[in-house]
Amino acid sequence: MISKNYLITFILLFIFACGGDDNISIPPENIELSISEKIFISDLESLIGNSIDINLISNFTTDDQGGIYYYRIQSLDLSGLGLSTLPESIGNLDSLEILNVDDNLLESLPDTICACPLDELTLLNNSICLTSSIPSCVQDYYDVMNQNCVAYPDENDQEFLDELVLMNGIMDSIAEEIKNDRVTWEIKLEGEGLVQRIIKLDLENLDLDTIPFSIGGLDHLKWIELENNNLTSIPASFGSLTQLWYLDLYNNQIFDLPSSFQYLTELKELYLYSNQLTEIDFSFSNLLNLEKLWINNNEISQIDSSICEIAVNLEFYFNDNKLCDNLPLCMLNIDLDEQNCDE
Predict the structure, then answer these.
(1) Which of 35, 86, 112, 133 is the most buried (most CB within 10 A)?
(2) Which pLDDT belongs to residue 58?
């Protein structure tokens, strides 16, 4: 009886004697890295300043070049090596599919990286702070929020705070309180990099009598509290605050509101009570997100008829005004006893 091992050996010898499958290739032992890989490793060692064990940071595939076999780098882990740049020769690694460069000091990536057939790239915790420093081919792998970048306050936002302090004669100690405790900043990506933008202002109880026109440049502002001040008017530039959803102006001396309020399309809550308003003549047609409107305790005798377009789901307080005649249709049944019609 023929043994099992003898039978297997006989079958293999028969296959090779007959030529076998021309696509079958068996790489020999002791094959080397390709010249492209060797050049990259040499360049990498020059950047690091010492030799590296390529087996600790790489996984390989084999490449048959006319019967001569070479190792090609398929995945590469360069994380935490203190790299401030990557060798241009990385572009010659045409088998590289996975690359990890997390936790380095990189400020950019070479354009040659686009020659690599990357399926996966991670580059967290570097210093790539300009979007233009990332080749377009790998933009999908990049998020500037995951980089170690310093975001400075926007110049226009900072200018508004300086003008607010100057125009209202605010003493230094209160000015520091405003900038440190009453302003909420949020990091945004604008243009090619990160910047801090004001998203919330708490300016209540400061005896303010003027709001700088430059407030219109706070185009990330979502929330502002201006109650309990001495304001008599609001700048028309308020209409540029298209992300604003909370506005508190109660208990001032405001006698007029700009028509630009109609452009505050994200506004949800608007508190105007206890002022000196005599009319509200801006259109409500675009204020479809408005949920709360408190205008009570003013001198309002007229309100734009477009209020009826949003009144159904609106929390609307309007008592203690002078809404007595020429009312919008949706307000014809209001209780006149709650208005100051005899004054």
Answers:
(1) 86
(2) 87
